[in-house]
Amino acid sequence: MSSSIRIKLKTAIQKSKTSSPLPCSPEPAIKPQPKPSDKLNPKTIDPFGDHSRAPSAFAAIYAKGGVPCRLIHGAVKHRLQWECLPETVPFDPLLITLAEGLRETKHPYTFVSKEGFKELLMVEDATEKAVPLLPRLVPVLKAALAHSADEVFERGLDALVQLSAVVGTSLNDHLKLLLTNLSRRLMDKKFKEKITVALQKLEQYGGKATVAIIKLKIPTYCSISS
């Protein structure tokens, strides 16, 4: 092959390469940036987001509208807005669902579960509705008290005191299941005062029989009547 033919062939190949369009991959779809307020709206919460694990039971129920109250974001503080009067809401299973939500660590679930539990126990006939649920409710509270996160433990402790104020002596039969976790946390100085006050509240609402139950697990407890 002559040198002139080789030069022509080489030039033709170079032209072919430069003129052929390069294969281009499709541009990735651009997702709209979420608004800060989307975090407060259950309709815009994506429990399957890239940075989330599988949704918890409470998060899934909340996203589907199974919790009949929503967080209202105020300038000073948040509040709940109920879709219907709390007095008309069945405690079973809502009270248990809200108690399960106490173990949440993400907003808005943390606020909704804590505030919803408290407000539901404030209805007029809460005692009659809550007492039959104690065998199912106490293990859920125990799980919150056993949680490694301090804020979850504190929510569980607050909920326990609120429940005790409503059901009174009916809680005594289940109290042993809860005191082990309180005894362990009592060793932590930052919780000592808060737990002591909670135990005093349990005694106040549960009566004299509560003292003996508490002392079985926490011998150092001093009765408010002593």
TrEMBL record:
It comes from the Eukaryota. InterPro entries: ARM-like (IPR011989), ARM-type_fold (IPR016024), Parkin_co-regulated_protein (IPR019399). PANTHER family: PACRG-LIKE PROTEIN, PARKIN COREGULATED GENE PROTEIN PARK2 COREGULATED. Residues 23-35 have a biased composition (Pro residues). This is Parkin coregulated like. Residues 13-22 have a biased composition (Polar residues). It holds the Pfam family ParcG. Residues 12-47 are annotated as: Disordered.
